[in-house]
Amino acid sequence: MNSQQKIKQLIDKREQAKLGGGVKRIEAQHQKGKLTAKERIAILLDEGSFEEYDMFVTHRCTDFGLEKESYMSDGVVTGHGTIDGRVVFVFSQDFTVFGGSLSETFAQKICKIMDQAMKIGAPVIGINDSGGARIQEGVKSLAGYAEIFERNILASGVIPQISAIFGPCAGGAVYSPALTDFILMTEDTSYMFVTGPKVTKTVTGESISTEELGGAEVHATKSGVSHFVVEDEEEGLMMIRKLLSYLPQNNLEEPPMTPTNDPIDRREDALNDLVPVDSNKPYDMLNLIQLIVDNGEFLEVQPKFARNIITAFAKMGGMPVGIVANQPNYLAGVLDINASRKAARFVRFCDAFNIPLVTLVDVPGFLPGSAQEYGGIIIHGAKLLFAYGEATVPKVTVTVRKSYGGAHDVMSSKQLRGDINYAWPTAEIAVMGAAGAVEVLEGRKLGEIKDDNERARYIEEKTNEYNEKFANPYQAAKYGYIDDVIEPRNTRFRVIRALRTLATKKDLLPPKKHSNIPL
Length: 519
Hints:
The strands form 3 sheets. Strands 10, 11, 12, 13, 14, 15, 16 and 17 form an 8-stranded mixed β-sheet that branches. The protein has helices at residues 3-18, 23-31, 37-44, 104-120, 139-155, 175-179, 197-204, 210-214, 216-223, 233-244, 285-292, 337-352, 370-374, 377-390, 405-410, 434-441, 443-448, 452-470, 474-478, 491-501; strands at 51-53, 76-83, 86-93, 124-128, 161-165, 168-170, 182-186, 191-193, 228-230, 298-301, 309-316, 319-326, 357-363, 395-404, 420-423, 428-430, 484-485. Strand 2 and strand 3 (86-93) form a beta hairpin. The chain contains 20 helices and 17 strands. By secondary structure, it is of the alpha/beta class.
């Protein structure tokens, strides 16, 4: 065979590899509303930047007839490319080859690019569309999963890891995405569960559909497993590109600064009237966020889960920030189990990747009740407390309205090494609200008053007295727990200036192997 023939052979093999499981299976994939592994990569990465690894790898199993059927790439496309000119590594599971099932060589391909990403210090994006372990390979496929899990664990907090679920992801396969930083799912075409509907029915007798058990909506609203839900794969791939625009390449780099045409000293008069006079009335914290960030743009994380707290990425003065904010529009902005879990994980991610934290506080306390106590609100609330106290990134806190009880401490208070803590004039920082405080402090006196009108007058008098003392930020400011009381319309300028001041901040943790966060 001469050189021209060898080159033709190479070209033919490459064309064959591009077809994955063949034209018919590609058509079947498209009919389900799904893209192929390579089509997904082409949309995700900058045009012409993809460098594929291990195109000619095939499986090694010779049991159960597998020796008669072999496909190049063996069900997963791997390699690296760029997103906005920055290097990323990617693997994309190919459902057209053995249903995207994981084999020994399939796992080795993924492990290879994860090892490379760790050496280079670049994000890893995994596109999941797989029927699970390749049964014919038995324990080798299980070992392959564990090899991937170990790399997910070692990479955690070192490089960003993002998982897109664009099809089935079941059994052991779910744990690799679960170990990554962000999970994205598509409506109607993706699902995740440890045990499927058939086994569930056999073991528990519960009849449930695939969508109800592990669809995108379930994981976005009930379990909190999914961070983003999109209508289709193209939207999902664009979402990943947007997410990466806020993140550094690795834990040793700073997040990417970008020029902004939004004036840093832009005043927003609307903020002066944002908080209702009646402290029991809700307002939308998302409006506040939109008014203070660059060009009103932000990316909310887990928007449908634990809606009483907001977590989002934004830029302020061109600098990426992580925003954590209580949402008075939902459950009055209380902290509960799910809100604490959601915010704690977000805070820890931002801290791991040098992203400053801006915390907007309007919290009446923790949600009371037996369901919360039995569910472990003590431990879960402590997660958020721990996350803030451990974080060494710049932390700027603005108390907008209520900041009561233990929840005041938890929400990036000065005592948890909050760097700069501002308050609006509408801030109320106290152990509890006026009504509850009067009930506790004046309970005996109220019991002695028999006349209803006189009791009502006394309650009103004491409530006003309590409000006068605590329904303002000046008590906390008197002790230095609040660094300054600021005019709401100046919030953007004051926060950005604080962040710039803190840019070179260094906070140290005591020497230790690792912390034991309350899980």
